[in-house]
Design brief:
Blueprint lengths: L1 H20 L7 E4 L4 E5 L3 E7 L5 E8 L22 H4 L17 E5 L8 E9 L2 E8 L4 E10 L4 E10 L5 E12 L6 E7 L7 E6 L3 E7 L11 E6 L10 E7 L4 E7 L5 E7 L6 E3 L4 E3 L2 E7 L2 H17 L12 E3 L1 H4 L5 H14 L3 E4 L29 H9 L3 E6 L3 E2 L4 H5 L19 E2 L5 H17 L4 E4 L21 H19 L4 E4 L17 E3 L6 H14 L5 E5 L12 H8 L3 E4 L8 H23 L1 E6 L6 E7 L5 E10 L19 E6 L10 E3 H7 L8 E11 L2
Parallel strand pairs: 21-22, 21-30, 22-23, 23-26, 26-27, 27-28, 28-29, 29-30
Antiparallel strand pairs: 1-2, 2-3, 3-4, 5-10, 6-7, 7-8, 8-9, 9-19, 9-20, 10-17, 10-18, 11-12, 11-14, 13-16, 14-15, 15-20, 16-17, 24-25, 31-32, 32-33, 33-36, 34-35, 34-36
Helix pairs in contact: 5-6, 8-9, 10-11, 11-12
Bound molecules: alpha-D-galactopyranose.
Alpha-D-galactopyranose binds next to loops.
Length: 736
């Protein structure tokens, strides 16, 4: 009886919450005006913010869904523990300015021209509309405003945050830290941090560590997103989450320049994750009337382990972020000439490769580096985006026509942000590179970085790329960036503004790509930076795919691709089949290389002139199979069944959105002691449905033509994988 009364009370409390504000509420943003609580509701999560008695915005909750947010108590600042750990630093302020007694990582730090370096933000007003909420704060004295903008993605269980900082004072306000915000994790738990770190040709290696008191900084200071770390984190409770079980909080930044994520456990054991522009070498003066928007910071929660968390982010990218999100479509099978020809491109040679590529089912032919200026090696030519007449006496059109006549579209490589000192562009404009006068200009791969923050450089780059695309039937560009910033000087602007280069560079990069896309509807772009050096949710709004890694060695790729899919969708994960021996001196069978690459967006980078008839026959069969399953691989749900990090056997399964098709890929590293393989348990199927199996080889031991979902998930499938680098795939079609 007592429990019944309590339940009724709770129900009533929830009802009252809705009632009191029902006319103000949309489904996803529920506002209790009296209690000043905003509850951002996704299908399975709640994120709640309130206003405390000091008038500060205070984070109240982030985690599994509260069906009745009315259960939450109004915001109330934390009591004073000691003069050393006062309430202003122990209260979970939603967007803390550095001011007063705030000692944790601030979201915003400023210096005003009058010398004041104290910022205390209080709530002013709110606006909400559909899935968007804006909470405005203001400093206690100055008309310095911050608008916190939230967008709710209900189906993906993700909240997007952005901060807009506006200087309405009459003096310059210099921003010294401009973060998008902070995510607070539920208190009194230990957390394990997972992130992806790496380097050129070794991207996306998963790292895990327990969060202890202190701070872990994930960042790039290199000018672009970098291979060194991806702007993504995941935290699970007590280190207990597995692929498909356990609570995981995660977040990702959308910024392609210097970024920083600070994972911090405070002295009071509050875990908080601040993210935004990197504070390193950061200084951004806002003149009266100016504003700065911070990058988007996406955060989500999944009770379905790391797999569930990844599927949330992958769904967000496919449904909301990527340029084709309104009509997601699988990427075509691509051929790229780089590993076959490097800089030695010419019309006849490319046509021979194109003929062979078309025969095996390739849909897009891409000519890589070497087609422009004096580009015979990496010492010259970058910056001169005019067709090399020795290699292509009649321009690119005859080659493009040849490719189009074979039924493929044509793509071209650019590296627009760079210049070789040995180029016409540099000879004409040595001042266009970032530099400090009188200081060295450090070269990497014999090239310097153009100062894209300059508007004249931005216009040059836009028009140079636009001209080539306008004059030729180019459907795709691979946009490369093969080095990081050095000596990031911008001597033409006042000293106080020179550090804006970190931000303005990226804004202008975005501007160029956005304008190119607008002017050339249907143009697709791949983001490459010596492999996966520029992959983040900011660039993904404007490119269709990314080059995952310059390391195409298939066994290494299993780990790189695994790490990649923790944050990013297989739809954008370009994966090529290339020749062996490859990196590490390793040789794996062609079928293994195909199956590894078929787990993302498939490309071929081999020298087709060296392939045997058997290689062509296998490639034709594999590409035909890939075309049957690629919509599921690229747009479906990914289940990482067995990890290459902790198993001799790697297995991944993809299930189509409508549940009608599933695909399993399995890879054996090396068999030992004659051990037979353990069964592989599938996931995400309907236990009561029947699935018809299609085999590509004879490696499935289970003999029948059809199986129930319950068999496939509970009994598992038995595979005959033997020796070294064996692999297989099966396709399942739901029949009833
Ligand atoms: C980078 C890319 C490669 C290739 C070369 C061309 O290294 O990652 O795929 O395009 O540049 O110079």
């Amino acid at each position: 009886m007592y429990r019944l009364i309590e339940t009724m009370k709770k129900l009533f409390a929830g009802f009252a919450f809705f009632l009191s504000a029902s006319f103000l509420n949309s489904q996803t943003i529920q506002y209790n005006q009296q209690q000043k609580i905003w509850a951002l509701q996704t299908d399975h999560t709640t994120y709640a913010v309130g206003v405390n008695e000091r008038g500060e915005l205070q984070n109240l909750y982030w985690g599994g869904k509260l069906t009745s947010p009315g259960d939450l108590a109004p915001a109330h600042s934390v009591h004073e523990w000691a003069s050393f750990d006062g309430s202003p630093t122990t209260t979970n302020e939603e967007y803390p300015g550095w001011g007063g007694r705030m000692y944790a990582e601030p979201s915003l730090k400023v210096t005003l021209a009058d010398g004041v370096r104290d910022l205390v933000l209080k709530y002013v007003d709110e606006k909400h509309d559909g899935n968007t909420l804006q909470l405005r704060c203001k400093d206690i004295n100055y008309p310095l405003f911050v608008t916190l903008e939230y967008r709710v993605y209900p189906a993906e269980d993700i909240i997007e945050k952005r901060a807009i900082i506006e200087n309405q004072t009459k003096q310059v306000v210099t921003l010294e830290s401009a973060q998008t915000g902070v995510w607070y994790l539920p208190r009194d738990q230990k957390y394990r941090l997972t992130y992806a770190a790496g380097r050129w040709a070794g991207e996306d290696q998963l790292q895990q560590q327990t969060v202890e008191q202190g701070a872990v900084v994930l960042e790039s200071r290199r000018g672009n997103t970098s291979h060194q770390m991806y702007p993504w984190f995941a935290l699970d409770k007590n280190g207990t989450a597995t692929q498909e079980h356990g609570d995981v909080w995660f977040g990702a930044l959308g910024w392609s320049g210097n970024w920083k994520i600070v994972v911090e456990e405070t002295p009071m054991h509050q875990v908080r994750v601040t993210g935004g522009y990197n504070t390193f070498d950061f200084s951004y003066p806002l003149k009266p009337g100016e504003r700065l928007e911070t990058p988007s910071y996406y955060g989500g929660f999944s009770a379905g382990g790391f797999g569930g968390a990844s599927r949330c982010l992958q769904a967000l990218e496919v449904n909301e972020i990527l340029p084709d999100h309104r009509n997601p479509h699988p990427r075509p099978v691509l051929y790229n000439s780089w590993e076959a020809t490097t800089f030695s491109v010419n019309q006849a040679g490319q046509e021979v490769l194109a003929d062979k590529a078309a025969k095996i089912g390739v849909e897009r032919f891409v000519m890589d580096d070497g087609w422009f200026g004096a580009r015979n090696n990496d010492h010259a030519g970058l910056g001169d985006w005019v067709v090399n007449k020795q290699k292509f006496p009649n321009g690119l059109q005859p080659l493009i026509k040849h490719v189009n006549d074979l039924g493929m579209d044509f793509g071209l490589w650019f590296e627009p942000e760079m210049v070789n000192p040995n180029s016409d562009l540099y000879r004409a404009h040595p001042d266009w590179v970032m530099n400090f006068p009188g200081r060295p200009r450090s070269e990497a791969r014999n090239q310097l970085v153009l100062n894209l923050a300059r508007d004249d450089v931005r216009e040059y780059v836009f028009h140079a790329v636009d001209k080539v695309i306008s004059e030729n039937n180019i459907k795709f560009i691979k946009w490369d960036m093969n080095r990081h910033f050095s000596e990031p000087g911008w001597p033409e602007v006042p000293i106080a503004e020179q550090k804006e280069i970190w931000i303005k560079y990226v804004q202008n990069l975005y501007n160029i790509i956005d304008r190119l896309r607008q002017k050339h509807p249907g143009l697709e772009i791949e983001s490459c930076s010596g492999g996966g050096g520029r992959v983040d949710l900011g660039i993904l709004k404007r490119v269709d795919e990314v080059w995952t890694s310059d390391n195409t060695e298939a066994f290494d790729r299993l780990k790189i691709q695994e790490g990649f899919t923790y944050a990013y969708t297989p739809q954008i994960m370009m994966a090529w089949v290339t020749d062996v021996p490859n990196m590490n001196g390793r040789s794996t069978p062609l079928s293994y290389r195909f199956l590894v690459a078929m787990q993302g967006a498939l490309g071929i980078g081999s020298n087709l002139n060296k392939w045997s008839p058997d290689d062509f026959a296998l490639a034709t069969k594999m590409i035909a199979y890939y075309k049957q399953i690629r919509a599921t691989v690229q747009l479906g749900k990914l289940y990482r069944l067995l990890s290459p990090r902790d198993s001799n056997l790697t297995a991944n399964e993809y299930v189509s959105k409508d549940g009608k098709q599933a695909v399993l890929f399995a890879f054996l590293h090396s068999q030992q002691f004659g051990n037979v393989m353990p069964n592989i348990y599938l996931r995400g199927l309907d236990p009561n449905a029947t699935y018809k199996v299609t085999r590509i080889d004879k490696k499935l031991n289970d003999p029948h033509e059809t199986y129930t979902g319950s068999y496939l998930m509970n009994h598992g499938v038995s595979l005959k994988l033997t020796g070294d680098y064996d692999s297989t795939s099966i396709e399942l079609q739901r029949v009833e």
